[in-house]
Amino acid sequence: MERHWSRVWGDRRQELVFIGTGMNETEIRAALDECLTGSPTATRFDPNAYRHLRDPFPFWGRADAA
Length: 66
What we know:
single chain, mainly alpha, 2 helices, 21% helix, 0% strand
């Protein structure tokens, strides 16, 4: 756990775990890599670079979240 600890954020992180038999790690990694956006050398996320994309989710208001 210590290798993932951040003085600023603590143990906040995201992790995907695939459990099963007969899975192909190379194919899974390739499929996930296809989902990545942006430059692989970028150090910060720039939301303005994606403002032109259509939002695939329907609009919902505060009342819908309750």
